[in-house]
Amino acid sequence: MKPAERSEFFRRLAAVDPAPRTELDYATPFQLLVAVILSAQATDKSVNLATPELFRVAPTPQAIAALSEEQIAAYIKTIGLYKTKARNVLATARLLLERHGGEVPHDRAALEALPGVGRKTANVILNIVFGEPTIAVDTHIFRLANRTGLTPGKDVVAVEKKLIRAVPAEYRLHAHHWLILHGRYVCKARKPECWRCVVREVCGYQEKYNVQP
Fold it and tell me: Which residues are catalytic?
């Protein structure tokens, strides 16, 4: 995809949704961190169904740290890999208290040192909480980047690096959410809904005009 086409690609996404937001429910940076940890290999919808009661009982790192691993697991047992995630959430809360005064750190290395936090999760926190123009490449963005020809790559890190270089500066802050939401609801895995896609004219997908409702 040429630079002018990329610019038009994001201009169209921005026109439809000027201020995109995460679909995870949270009230504080810590709660967002927990929600993103829980969202690994799970849907935002399933996380949002599990976290209200957990956050009601334990909304802070201090409160989470006071729970047992089994207690946390009981609140999130409807989410995949809940036992491992409960262990990670508890360990993360304790490390935040030990190393960062209970605050979510504004530092990639410090974030990635937390249990259950990898590059993608760190990018989400840096973007949403701290307003950095990072792009967390998940399965939706990876698929979209390759299918459309926006920034094709063999793995998520390659796609992320290409996106950081390719996305016009004025669109970089919100690019992460535009791409995830577009991949989630329009450029779907099994059957992309090309007939209602706002970027179809600048998309490189060869079958885009053959896909029918």
Answer: 120, 138
Report pLDDT digits (tens) over 52-76: 999 999 999 999 999 999 999 999 9
Q: If you search the block for the tokens 């005064």, which residue do you land on?
A: 101
CATH number for domain 3-20+135-202, candidates 3.60.15.10, 3.75.10.10, 1.10.1670.10, 3.40.50.1820:
1.10.1670.10
Residue 211 pLDDT greater than 90, yes or no: no
Half-sphere exposure of 163 (CA within 13 A, CB side): 30
Q: How confident is the model at residue 33 (pLDDT cuts 50, 70, 90)?
A: very high
Contacts of 144 (CB under 8 A, 6+ apart): 150, 179, 182, 183, 187
pLDDT of res. 102: 97
Architecture of domain 29-128: Orthogonal Bundle (1.10)
Among the listed residues 163, 172, 114, the one whose alpha carbon sits nearest the alpha carbon of residue 137: 163
